[in-house]
Amino acid sequence: MHPSIVTVTSTQNHQDLCITPPTSDIALQGRIRIPGDKSISHRALMLGAIAAGETTIEGLLLGEDPRSTAACFRAMGAEISELNTDRVTVRGLGETGLQEPANVLDAGNSGTTMRLMLGLLASQPDKFFTVTGDGSLRSRPMSRVINPLRAMGATIWGRDGDKLAPLAVRGQALSAARYDSPIASAQVKSCILLAGLHTDGQTTVTEPAKSRDHSERMLSAFGAQIDLDPETNGVTITGGATLRGQHVIVPGDISSAAFWLVAAAIVPGSDLTIENVGINPTRTGVLDALTLMNADITLENKREVAGEPVADLRVCYSQLSACELSGEIIPRAIDEIPILAVAALFAKGTTKIRDAAELRVKESDRLAVMAAQLQAMGATVTEYPDGMDIVGGATLTGVETDSHDDHRIAMSLAIAALRATGTTTIHRAESASISYPNFIETLKQTLGDT
């Protein structure tokens, strides 16, 4: 038996995660399940809250972000049962619409909650809403959804030229519109579609590349009329539909699976199967990227669950090769770029990541933070405005690092630490609970570190 690999200490309001890999006999083995898909969890709660009748949700992600969504919609009159993975019941508001809340709506750290919700709030005539979030969310750009909503007739005020939260919204009867989005963003697209749900006429959103399509799939399942135009990456919603409550089964989140895919790919001797993972083609950029890097990944037991494709993913250690990640793959892998940067550290050659400037306005500036933290561990990383170059073959040394209160940074650094010499300490590691509440327990499980 080797000493404990993974230890956690708490200091005041924060958590330090310490990882000390042994010099040998470390590998990730077995079968694991991951939390429910965060994107689908948000949308199931929201659509259930505005639908007529009852929606039941199985496999809901119990992270902080979906809890923020549930709290906001409870405050507007939806009846949402206690959140658990087995079964959550949502009794929606249907034709009556969202109620004006007595207090400020708090989206916490969740950009998805705030941006998607704005489309619904803006389209509730004669009702007043105020929305805020934590320090990180209040610094993230909201103009990308405010501007197209205003073009539909929305009345929204905010800080810094109406670009930042807190935001105030006076609901209006909006007009249907066409919006040609300059960026591929599921949050922007979904916000406009949700606003279009309550207009007379057809609202269309086009994108330069196809972003994740969970909103289109779920809106259609709840009874909205959705039309797709593959040539323009366009989605059209016809306003006026009454949504009906549904039974939703949430598959495992491929963004959470990504940490284990990379961990098993870079730690010699690993053979790990991740069960029940959503493999929606608009989300599988991480699989395509790792395939480009010659990772040994097999999709087993492919099936469809509640309209979403699902599979078990088996990943074994292999020698990775460098690649270039840019263009159309980036919108499908944007959340996984931090952990793909870790994979690149152990790939032969120099991996180039481009067209990823969007990462600078996430929970942290993920390009700057990942570059700085990996450099501190001994990696050779060159930062660019829209990406980075990562030289493979690095010998990492355990040092003190910081998550910058970003869940994906915290978990990416934990995986990098498995191949570092000595102890890596990740400060503010509690941020992982935003999307993956039991990440540390699963890490111990895969390592046999009980």
Structural write-up:
This protein is of the alpha/beta class and 450 residues long. It folds into two domains: 227 residues, Enolpyruvate transferase domain (UDP-n-acetylglucosamine1-carboxyvinyl-transferase, Chain, Alpha-beta prism), CATH 3.65.10; 212 residues, Enolpyruvate transferase domain (UDP-n-acetylglucosamine1-carboxyvinyl-transferase, Chain), CATH 3.65.10.10. It has 13 helices and 28 strands. Strands 1-2-28-26 form a four-stranded mixed β-sheet, covered by helices on one side. It has a four-stranded mixed β-sheet with strand order 3-16-18-17. It has a four-stranded mixed β-sheet with strand order 5-6-4-15, with helices on one face. Strand 1 and strand 2 form a beta hairpin. The longest helix has 13 residues. It starts with 5 loop residues before the first strand and ends with a helix. The mean pLDDT is 95.
